[in-house]
Amino acid sequence: MSIETDATNNAGPQTLTMGKGMKRKEDPRFLTGNGNYVDDMRLPGMLYMAIVHSPYPHANIKGIDKAAALAVPGVKAVITGEDLVAASLAWLPTFHGFDKQMVLAVGKVLFQHQEVAAVFAETREAARDAAELVDVDYEPLDPVISPFDSMKDEVILRDDREDKTNHIYHWDSGDRDGTQAALDDSEVVVTERIYAPRCHPAPLEPCGCVAQFDAMGRLHFWVTSQAPHVYRTAISLVTGIPEDKIRVISPDIGGGFGNKVPVYPGYVCAIVGALILKTPVKWIETRTENLTTTGFARDYHMDVTIGAKKDGTVTALKVKTVADHGAFDAAADPSKYPAGMFGVVTGSYQFPVAFAELDAYFTNKAPGGVAYRCSFRVTEASYAIERGMDILAQKLTMDPAELRRKNFVRKDQFPYDSALGFTYDSGDYEGTMDKALNQIGYAELRREQAEKRARGEYMGIGISTFTEVVGAGPSKHFDILGIKMFDSAEIRIHPTGTGIIRTGTKSQGQGHETTWAQIVAEELGLDPQNLLVEEGDTDTAPYGLGTYASRSTPVAGAALALAARRVREKARKVAAHLLEAAAEDIEWVDHKFQVMGAPSRSVTMKEVAFAAYTNPGEGNEPGLEASLYYDPPNMTFPHGAYIAVVDVDAETGEVKVRRFLAIDDCGTVINPMIVEGQVHGGLTEGFAIAFMQEIPYDEQGNNMAPNFMEYLIPTSVEAPVWETGSTVTPSPHHPIGAKGVGESPNVGSPAAFVNAVMDALAPLGVTHIDMPLTREKVWRAIRDAQAAAASD
Amino acid sequence: MTATDTTDTTLRTVTLNVNGQTLHQQVEPRTLLAYALRDAGLKGTHVGCDTSSCGCCVVLLDGDTPAKSCTMFAVQAEGHQITTVEGLGGPGNLHPLQQAFWDQHGLQCGYCTPGMLMTAKAMLEHNPDPTDQEVREFLSGNLCRCTGYNNIVKAVQQAARVMRDEAQAQALAGMVPGTDPSTGTAGGGAQ
Questions:
Q1: What is the pLDDT of residue B34?
Q2: Shortest Cα distance from B55 to chain A (angstroms)?
Q3: Does residue A40 sit in helix, strand or coil?
Q4: pLDDT confidence bin for A792, thresholds 50/70/90
Q5: According to the model, what pLDDT value does residue B7 have?
Q6: Is the CATH number of domain A27-35+487-630 3.30.590.20?
Q7: Less Cβ crowding at N or C end of chain A, within 10 Å?
């Protein structure tokens, strides 16, 4: 197979490395304790920073007494919001662009654990001791915790804003009147309030940074960032430091999942500390700081309404969402998409008409709204539609697989324009679902379920056939802080045929050091083991928007393939010189250059690389490198069919996930081992979201899950055994046909789990329980349903 | 206010035996072992949760006891043989567990990996032939956010097989006089 054949270049037997499960190049360093994370940075004279947090969710600050803190041996400075006001550094723009966020509280605190002061000391212990001694005089105010209370505007939470309302913005998409008319005419209508609970990405490495100004006044900033280039620009905009005087370095990152996209107040404080104290400052947040102050995810209350004919053909979709954004609108969405990619809520189905609207409100809760392992609100959207389809199936007493089949966008309809304005690139929804149904033995499982139901046992089968929209994004639609969401690649091939690859993305465990080398190796016929991948240093890497929203492979991966082809074109001229032929007579076959029609006359890329530096040929530019900025023509639309099989113990509410099968279609696969690993990890996070994880607040505004004792991460005992598989529908517009996969399992699986539990409880008439499906909630639902049945 | 004024912040020297070497570290009585190790440059031991939940900080005490070094004071570690991930094997001489995690894609971001490896090492010291369920139960104090554990279980089983085979080879080699049982090769001429 020729690797010239762009989008149809699926991994075949003759590929060098594409489609092969090459072991990861980065692993030996992680396996031997040689990883280089931010907290591993140690600089001479480095101070430690600790932050003082508010115990109140809503309070006026009457005064702050630093004296006791400053008296602690080793303490160098304490800064407060008032200090930052004087330096014009009190507020931080949010990536969203609709709001700004306090760096340290000015006048009042707006959520529990809000940052109030920062302490700098010689040791981390002294910094924390002193933080305890900063005496803040609070005047507590009544907190507003629910967005349904906040929308009444009885208490205006943000008196710093011009608009005296808690309403942040309204967003809508689609045909409001047409949708209502279609619903009014529908034979069947189902509607359900579905809550996507507030949760947190919680990577195992907390956020942190080290700030250092060198002798020439240049800022060197090591930080746990998924988007180091955007950070450099944001830091320049906030602090006024010229961008060339800032170097941001994201070293090894211990997981991100969206948590490490926003710029946090602690980073600004550390930079201020390093500036005023003229010595490096390190700040590593505690787990409690991570869970209580940095970007949460979800917190969408979604009213989902689906209209259908009696035969199951869907006629309309309406979704009305109330979004809780906390104290500041710090959601990390592209500027023109305040509700992210929520418009993908029509899912894999042919809705002739749809309407989605959303209103976002301030509350006295932590700010955020990050894309937790999804492409900006895609998990919420996918959960809403996949849950909604099952509720419809239950109402129609139709098999949920058959209901989906009836409504799928068909393979021959792509590119498909959805009712909410996306152009889906490619897909085979029915083929992927059929593969899943066959592989899991769906018919047999339904027979088993019928037998169990007859015996009064609760077994459930849950299906989710989701579609994602990832790879933000085309510059005409997508920007953050005005910066278009392109990405970039730079390739330098050395004389000996090895090379270095740099991109604007930043791996946090995704394995870019391996997959990026594989892409370039395949395009250039070189050994991926000798292609070094370097990301995360803004002094060396080309500008890019970073790694989140499954955008690395769709955007930077495309940039890499095209940059490699530029290198190849340059090499072709050198090859022509070596082969004494015209460049147009040189073809690239089986990973080497040969004279057309004379296969015996050929040179390898390695030979050409050496010649590029030693004997390039007259008129040919010496050297062998290229860089490229890629503006994607469209998003990519990965999809999948997931099936969960559960057994519910009606006595205890315990749910056992007996089997889970994930068939993913992420287009061309670069490294199947890494894809499978991503799917395993995302499914485990989806499992956690479905059954364990939530950041709830009590009525007084207390964060009830401020550590891993309360915010539950699945262990190896809870995590199910995952079964996986794939279909391959390449993206027609991506240079190698790849679509991205890291988030699919987290987007698609929560609905499969919940649908399975609801399917198990269907005989009791239970239609919906909000996540997380804890034993208590499931047990209460069963008990209530049994009580209701008994009283009938 | 907290009782900070009663906290003893006097520095004292602890003598730690880490990976067969003696370290003298200046610590406060309250300094956690994890930070004492990291301050000594052994950065492979990570801190992830502060509540003894995640296990990123696991080291071995006396060869076979996994300990969360964020839940132990450095002064308590005196007199113990401590093994950190740096003592397990380096890039040129990976331990079978490190090799297996690499082979089976048992890591992604790498943050939990050192703790995971050390707990797995302790388990295999006690149980060289575990079932998958036993592996899962033994590792349940170590959180991983990336892998979903499936490949970690496979990796531990691969390492267990390799280590059993090595132990058997060593035992067999030991039956022949003049053979170095530590390498399983005659005359110690290991290649």
A1: 98
A2: 10
A3: helix
A4: confident
A5: 65
A6: no
A7: C
Which of A199, A207, A374, A666 is flagged as catalytic? A374
Reply yes or no on whether the pLDDT at B2 is more than 70. Answer: no
Q: Which of A516, A468, A420 is nearest to A667 (CA)?
A: A468
Residues 6+ apart with CB under 8 A from A598: none
Same fold, A27-35+487-630 and A296-414+423-471+634-791: yes
Please write the tens of the pLDDT for every residue from A456-510. 999 999 999 999 999 999 999 999 888 999 999 999 999 999 999 999 999 999 9
A535 is catalytic: no
Cis check: omega of the bond before A473, within 30 degrees of 0: yes
Which numeric CATH code is attached to A38-141+206-253+260-293? 3.90.1170.50
Interface contact B110-A707, CB threshold 8 A? no
Q: Which of B56, B85, B90 sits opposite A204 (nearest CB)?
A: B56
Collect all residues of chain B within an 8 Å Cβ-Cβ radius of residue A30: 107, 109-110, 113
Note the pLDDT tens digit of each residue in A688-732: 999 999 999 999 999 999 999 999 999 999 999 999 999 999 999
Distance between CA B187 and CA A485 in Å, rounded? Answer: 64
Residue B162 lies in a domain: yes
What distance in Å separates the CA atoms of residue A381 and residue A287, rounded to the nearest whole number?
Answer: 29
Of A647, A737, A653, which Cα lies nearest the Cα of A426? A737
Question: What confidence tens digit (pLDDT) does each residue in B65-98 have?
Answer: 999 999 999 999 999 999 999 999 999 999 999 9
Cα torsion A403, A404, A405, A410: sign:
positive
Q: What is the CATH number of the domain that holds B125?
A: 1.10.150.120
Which residue among B48, B102, B146 places its CB closest to the CB of A287?
B48
CB contact under 8 A, A719 and B150: yes
How far, rounded to the nearest angstrom, does the alpha carbon of residue B191 sit from its chain's CA centroid? 26
Say whether pLDDT at A8 is over 60: no
Domain A296-414+423-471+634-791 adopts which CATH fold?
A: Aldehyde Oxidoreductase; domain 4 (3.30.365)
Task: List the single residue in A33, A125, A715 with the smallest CB-CB distance to B28.
Answer: A125
Mean local confidence (pLDDT), B150-157: 98
pLDDT of residue B183: 53
Q: Which residues of A touch B89 (CB under 8 A)?
A: 32
Domain boundaries in chain A?
Answer: 27-35+487-630, 38-141+206-253+260-293, 296-414+423-471+634-791
Quick one: which of A103, A120, A109 has its CA closest to A50?
Answer: A120
Distance from the A517 Cα atom to the nearest Cα atom in chain B, whole angstroms = 17
The CA distance from A685 to the nearest CA of chain B, in Å, is 7
User: Residue B40 — φ and ψ, nearest 5°?
Assistant: -85, 5
Is the CB of A203 less than 8 angstroms away from the CB of B109? Answer: yes
Arithmetic mean of pLDDT over chain A = 96
